[in-house]
Amino acid sequence: MRPSAIQPSLHLAEVRYEIRGALARRARALEAAGHDVLKLNIGNPGRFGFRAPAHLTAAITAHLADSDAYGHEQGLESARAAILAQQHARGVDAEGIERVFIGNGVSELIDLALRAVLNPGDEVLLPAPDYPLWSAATILNAGTPRYYACPASRAHLPDPDEIEALCGPRTRAIVLINPNNPTGACYPRALLERIVDLARRRGLLLLSDEIYDSIRYDAAPFTPLASLAGDWPCMTFAGLSKVHRACGFRIGWATLSGSGERVEAYRDALQLLAALRLCANVPAQWAIEPALAGPDTISALTAPHGRLHEARRAVLEGVARSRFLECVAPEGALYAFPAVRADVLPAFDDNEFALRLLDEEHALVVPGSSFNLVDSRHFRITLLPEPAQIADVFARIERVLARMEQEQPESKVA
């Protein structure tokens, strides 16, 4: 008898991660066939000529001899102390380094944070569009995502009343991504205060993904959610990958704030899960303290005439030149989230567009539906290329959209 094929977990049928999915595999096939593909699908600074600051790599090199053994399951004490000091400077009342967890990137910590709180059937409130790892981690930990809308018509900001309407007896947590991926929205303080109030009244754990906290444009605001939450439980996520352009280091951290009686059991659950995976990558943890205590290396990139600021300008100019596109200007993070206008191209499929852009013009973007957005007319593009490359990409986008317009039934009849 031939052995049966091994079947994957049923949980995976509901999981999507198109950022590195079928389109990315198609791009690799095109490259293997000899085509140059401009990959605008991932916020990966090292692929666009950015380097981690030299004082971070120097710290790792200096401590390689100290990195052979397993470390503490929550991370190096000196690194956790530096993270805690940053949080205290931001007005966050986190009680000690035992509340700080260092992981192999924020991705690992998102999974641990949800695994520590969810029972089968529990619900997590997530933004739509969301960063799809949050949805995937919720589903893989037997939870159910419930999405609150952040539409372009509202500058991609949520409505707290709409969020509260989604709350039910199984709702356990609310996730915020600020500055937002994929939209670039930065949440005003008054909005955050209302969400904290909602969490208090409904007994929800706050999970705040702030990995892009210092990547902001034109003086856009940033208020750490935990500074407003005070004694209410809040888990804040950050790391080296974006602000410090060190994605490959795979270092993220999470700080748990809130009063002791409210978070003690949850903290112990997080420590247990951290211990089960032994520890995070030790050598790269030595870069945390110099990253947080050393010179600011991101502001020059996001300020006017800085490379990221100019790339953002190139995106907005490309949208302004287009007959088909509109876009809410991103206030932060490393992406823009343009949309195709319904009045110009009524019959539009974002996945078809992304595939045609890849096949016909050899440029890779992520369709908006990949971010758990229903009936999406959006796509995400990274701000990491040089401005001239971005201008070229928007010329390619315009050509594909023009061809799609010509192929619509109305156009053929006309």
Q: In words, what does this structure look like?
A:
The protein has 414 residues and is α/β, with parallel strands linked by helices. The protein has 2 domains: 10-51 and 300-413, Alpha-Beta Complex (Aspartate Aminotransferase, domain 1), CATH 3.90.1150; 57-293, Aspartate Aminotransferase, domain 2 (3-Layer(aba) Sandwich). Helices cover 39% and strands 14% of the residues. The protein is built from 16 helices and 14 strands. The strands form 4 sheets. A 7-stranded mixed sheet has the order 2-8-7-6-5-3-4, with helices on both faces. The model has no long low-confidence stretch (mean pLDDT 93).
- Give me the Rg, rounded: 22 Å
Strands across the major sheet, in which order?
2-8-7-6-5-3-4
CATH hierarchy: architecture of the largest domain:
3-Layer(aba) Sandwich
Low-confidence regions: none
Beta strand count? 14
Strand content: 5-15%
Instruction: Indicate the mean pLDDT.
Output: 93
CATH topology descriptor of the largest domain: Aspartate Aminotransferase, domain 2
Based on Cα principal axes, name the global outline.
Answer: globular
The number of helices is: 16
Largest sheet, described in full?
7 strands, mixed
Which structural category fits the helices and strands? alpha/beta
Number of domains: 2
Short synopsis of the structure:
By secondary structure, this protein is an alpha/beta fold. It folds into 2 domains: 156 residues, Aspartate Aminotransferase, domain 1 (Alpha-Beta Complex); 237 residues, Type I PLP-dependent aspartate aminotransferase-like (Major domain) (Aspartate Aminotransferase, domain 2, 3-Layer(aba) Sandwich).
